[in-house]
Amino acid sequence: MELILEGIKKAFELIVSLDPEVLGITLLSLQVSGLATFISLVLGVSAGTVVALANFRGRKFVISLINTGMGLPPVVVGLFVTIMIWRNGPFGFLEILYTPLAIIIAQAIIATPIIMGISLAAIQQLPENLRLQILSLGATRLQMVWVLIKEARLPLLAAVMAGFGGVISEVGASIMVGGNIKGYSRVLTTATVMETGKGNFDVAIALGIILLLLAFMVNLVLTQIQQRQRPR
Questions:
Q1: pLDDT tens-digit profile of 127-150?
Q2: What is the pLDDT of residue 130?
């Protein structure tokens, strides 16, 4: 208990003093996970909507793959991305291993199936006759898709929160592809692991508290937007 209280005290000191290193790590975490979530939002909602509206052979198998991907182990993603961008790998010429960009790629791969699966379910739960009604009013297919996405905006915002929560708290892939380099690719989760390994539990708890506060603040903003748009 004393250790936890010391960690809370340390977190308060780091936040109030605006410690440059902790501030840099926090901002990088927000930047990396924010960009990864945005990329996965574009890919996930687009692909999820296409699968939800299209009828093709093997559709149930594809949906099963998407649902399986929602539980994709981060370390497996980290291993795959590392192999791809390793200096002897297919994309080694890009020289992005152990960079923030590599973390963004790995986190986007983790979040995309999550957002895709929730988007797919959100579009599927809309009344089947709704799309026919929209088309009958003279809308194009693209306009019809846009209206459906707007109708499913509440669960889609929940998908964004789930995707962001999945990547901001991720550690395995971030260490593997980012290298946890001080002042360059170190984020809150990898810094917490490092401080725990060094026995600096007060600092580790402080970083953990800052991570929770960051996740809470982002989700608070998204929740406010979601509930503001909730049907009365």
A1: 878 887 888 888 888 888 898 988
A2: 86
Find the CATH number of the domain harbouring 111. 1.10.3720.10
44 closest CA partner among 152, 123, 159, 124: 159
Instruction: Give the number of C-alpha atoms closer than 13 A to the C-alpha of residue 57, restricted to the C-beta side.
Output: 0
Q: Which helix (H) or strand (E) holds 111?
A: helix 100-124
* pLDDT tens track for 177-196: 999 998 899 999 999 999 88
9, 14, 17, 22: CA torsion to nearest 10: 180
CB atoms within 10 A of CB 51: 20
Domain count, the chain: 1
Question: Are 23 and 92 a contacting pair, CB within 8 Å?
Answer: no
Domain span including residue 129 = 2-228
